[in-house]
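Re: weekly structure request thread

Next one in the queue (139 aa):
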Amino acid sequence: MGTWDIGHFDNDTAADFSGTLDDAAESERPGIVREALLRVVGTDDYLDSDEAAEAVAAAALVAAQCPGGEAVTTPYGPDEPVPALPADLRLLAVEALDRTLKKPSELMELWDETDAGPAWRAGMAGLRKVLTGAGPSLG
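Done, posted below.
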């Protein structure tokens, strides 16, 4: 996985996910976000880092539309607007984040092997907090 920072879109997979959203019709974008989350939530076996990275990016897009959420302003996020996402995606996004942080998860393992692991986990916790309505994102 090509990763250059701890942000939710600071890796090749998440940037490609943004491109997929940009290439899709506006009406299809909520479904693409939902599918990215469902792929992770539905995984009991080893969770591939690419699937997890897409789900984290999708969760960041959902969180951006929540009270206290931070807009996705990174150049690696979608260029095209993401329409209003259904409210039920909040719980799905929380479930996807929780699954990403549960063994076996390649993305979690990769971050835990780095000095930036705690900062990445803090960013995940911040997303979760916004998605559950517990407060603003930590980053």
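The first helix runs from residue 12 to 23. The chain has a mean pLDDT of 94.
Next request, please.
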